């Protein structure tokens, strides 16, 4: 049944937001991306009250200035985001923490409660060149687990943020097998999951099944859909993630998979407050394209009850 205002449940544990990613923003500074002030204006205009910081340096990093910009637009921050390569062992810790610390400090200053951690890509998302093997060794899995637990502990103790790890296409935490292995290898009291519905579907996973099976580990959601026809061609030809996005593999809801109403209902049944941040990968995109999509997506999610 399609979601509408008369049949949709009230999803009162779900707090909907959006992110710079939905405006085609992947990098701190890139001439093809919309300026940060335009993003803030338009995300507010589209009806969202929560955002993520996006790549560190895209939004102003001076806390008082950013706070003023957000307040003017009635926006709040749910999380910051970092990329890490903790499977490479203790040698990468200092460099990792230097970046994590600056992002976590800004997120904390903005009143956020989460830090989204994305594993490193095993192949370049532009050239498709393999940067390292796509499968981790047993030792690398151990380093990933222990490094993530250390990161989560330090981030919680120093900044009061909850680490949520984001399974992502073309990383080592992607498929159901890899996600389950990661969850089973890490401490549930320290490490939660940012379930990105699009990436998990992109990699063949069943979002509702994961929520129902590992509900206590779901700490955050990214809402995204995949075009199944484009995805089939991407998989068949082993297209890397960046070019796949340029082909339009991530599409606006409700045009793709997974169906979001069942995902949202499963999340609501967990009985905990969850952010559900819309992310439609569109890098690069025409500057006038994101706002109409954002408006339609917010209207669709309201029809789902969120």
From TrEMBL:
Residues 40-302 form the Xylose isomerase-like TIM barrel domain. Pfam families: AP_endonuc_2. InterPro entries: IolE/XylAMocC-like, Xyl_isomerase-like_sf, Xyl_isomerase-like_TIM-brl. GO terms for molecular function: isomerase activity. Keywords: Isomerase. It comes from Streptantibioticus parmotrematis. The keyword Isomerase applies. This is Sugar phosphate isomerase/epimerase. SUPFAM superfamilies: Xylose isomerase-like.
């Amino acid at each position: 049944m399609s979601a509408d205002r008369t049949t949709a449940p009230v999803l009162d544990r779900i707090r909907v937001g959006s992110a710079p990613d939905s405006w085609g923003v992947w990098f701190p500074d890139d001439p093809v991306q919309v300026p940060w002030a335009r993003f803030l204006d338009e995300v507010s205009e589209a009806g969202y009250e929560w955002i993520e910081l996006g790549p560190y340096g895209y939004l102003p990093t001076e806390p008082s200035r950013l706070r003023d910009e957000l307040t003017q637009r009635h926006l709040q921050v749910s999380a910051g985001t970092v990329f890490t390569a903790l499977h490479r062992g203790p040698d990468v810790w200092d460099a990792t923490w230097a970046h994590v610390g600056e992002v976590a400090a800004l997120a904390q200053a903005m009143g956020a409660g989460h830090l989204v951690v994305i594993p490193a890509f095993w192949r370049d998302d532009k050239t498709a060149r393999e940067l390292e093997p796509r499968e981790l060794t047993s030792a690398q899995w151990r380093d990933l687990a222990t490094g993530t637990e250390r990161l989560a502990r330090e981030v919680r103790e120093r900044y009061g943020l909850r680490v949520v790890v984001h399974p992502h296409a073309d990383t080592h935490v992607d498929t159901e097998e890899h996600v389950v292995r990661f969850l089973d290898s890490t401490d549930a009291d320290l490490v939660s999951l940012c379930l990105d519905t699009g990436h998990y579907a992109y990699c063949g996973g069943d979002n509702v099944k994961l929520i129902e099976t590992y509900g206590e580990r779901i700490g955050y959601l990214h809402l995204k859909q995949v075009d199944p026809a484009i995805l089939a061609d991407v998989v068949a030809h082993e297209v890397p993630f960046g070019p796949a996005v340029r082909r339009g593999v991530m599409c606006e809801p409700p045009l793709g998979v997974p169906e979001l109403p069942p995902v949202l209902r499963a999340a609501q049944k967990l009985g905990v407050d969850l952010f559900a941040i819309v992310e439609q990968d569109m890098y690069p995109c025409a500057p006038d394209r994101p706002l109409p999509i954002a408006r339609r997506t917010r209207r669709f999610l309201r029809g789902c009850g969120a």
